[in-house]
């Protein structure tokens, strides 16, 4: 299994993507990269261009400029080969034939996927497996017309992961799901990513996504106004000290401190890989700086998003 490293090429790479409808620019100079094993959440206000970006990434829409590569293959030049790496639900819930059962619909998807020379044959066992993963075993032999919105939503995810894609793209996979359904999608996405799949999903559920996405892209007015690396945000702590300014000046010199700022009465410290809270505490003690409290400085993605969208 490929683990994401600094040298690993991205599983999906969007470069300088522009999309116009007539004279109206919907996407302007959008760049993003997602590596194997990463979960990338795409968010932004209604009308920001998320669905247009997802449609373009999956090859359903053509860009006016720029490119999309999946596993190094251009989606718009070599669509068949690129799509053999790709599973997607665009404009959820996915469309299924209502008169056929969930299993029959998945079988049709499997047959279609297997027509590509680059995709191995998908057997009945795999169909049973994805139905079970999405907790749809009991619904498998029921007509899709009888499915609830949430069940159709889950069937969409089942069909997208059927061919074991290297890149999974899901447009609002948790909209319409109940809390248990949302938890299920989170677990599945996390498990796929830990097995090396690159996952991109669009969402408005920021506080949920903050618990398991690695990166969040904020799209506003067709531009990617920010890309937030949540893994780095999680390594922040605040220390209540007598002299936050003096503490920050001293901590900034430490090699494992990436950034230190004051938020009186706290010194807020972003830690690198090779240092932790005990090292900060012992350093402050050695400098004669008393610490009254040390606590994780939880990053509030919702507050951050609000600031970025209100003042892009
Ligand atoms: N086929 C089309 N022709 C013209 N304009 C379009 C077309 N499709 C989308 N748009 C416009 O592009 C903009 C972005 O729409 P899009 O659906 O990509 O936004 P979104 O971020 O997914 O929104 P939401 O969060 O509401 O789903 C909107 O202003 C929309 O009206």
Automatic annotation (TrEMBL):
InterPro entries per record: AAA+_ATPase (IPR003593), ABC_transporter-like_ATP-bd (IPR003439), ABC_transporter-like_CS (IPR017871), P-loop_NTPase (IPR027417)
Where in this chain does the record put each ABC transporter domain?
A: 12-246
**Keyword entries, A-Z:** ATP-binding, Nucleotide-binding, Transport
Q: Has UniProt tagged this entry with the keyword Nucleotide-binding?
A: yes
Q: Which PROSITE patterns match?
A: ABC_TRANSPORTER_1, ABC_TRANSPORTER_2
- Show the GO MF annotations: ATP binding
Q: Which family does it belong to?
A: Belongs to the ABC transporter superfamily.
| Protein known as | ABC transporter ATP-binding protein
Q: Which organism is it from?
A: Deinococcus antarcticus
């Amino acid at each position: 299994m490929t683990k994401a490293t600094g040298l690993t090429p991205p599983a999906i790479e969007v470069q300088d993507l522009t999309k116009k409808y007539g004279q109206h620019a919907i996407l302007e100079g959008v760049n993003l990269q997602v590596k194997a094993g990463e979960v990338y959440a795409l968010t932004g206000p209604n009308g920001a261009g998320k669905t247009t970006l997802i449609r373009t990434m999956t090859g359903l829409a053509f860009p006016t400029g720029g490119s999309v590569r999946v596993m190094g293959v251009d989606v718009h030049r070599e669509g068949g080969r690129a799509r053999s790496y790709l599973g997607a639900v665009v404009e959820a819930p996915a469309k299924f034939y209502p008169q056929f059962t969930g299993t029959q619909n998945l079988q049709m998807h499997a047959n279609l996927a297997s027509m590509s020379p680059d995709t191995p044959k998908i057997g009945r066992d795999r169909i049973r497996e994805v139905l079970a993963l999405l907790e749809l075993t009991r619904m498998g032999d029921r007509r899709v017309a009888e499915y609830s919105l949430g069940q159709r939503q889950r069937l969409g995810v089942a069909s997208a992961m059927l061919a074991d894609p290297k890149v999974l793209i899901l447009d609002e996979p948790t909209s319409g799901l109940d809390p248990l359904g949302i938890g299920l999608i989170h677990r599945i996405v996390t498990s796929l990513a830990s097995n090396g799949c690159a996952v991109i999903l669009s969402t408005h559920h920021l506080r949920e996504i903050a618990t398991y996405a690695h990166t969040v892209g904020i799209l506003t007015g067709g531009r990617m106004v920010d890309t937030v690396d949540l893994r780095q945000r999680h390594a922040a702590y605040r220390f209540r000290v007598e002299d936050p300014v003096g503490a920050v000046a001293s901590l900034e010199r430490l090699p494992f401190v990436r950034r230190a700022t004051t938020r009186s009465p706290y010194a807020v410290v972003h830690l690198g890989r090779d240092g932790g809270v005990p090292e900060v505490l012992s350093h402050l003690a050695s400098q004669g700086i008393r610490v009254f409290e040390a606590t994780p400085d939880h990053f509030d993605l919702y507050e951050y998003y609000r600031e970025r969208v209100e003042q892009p």
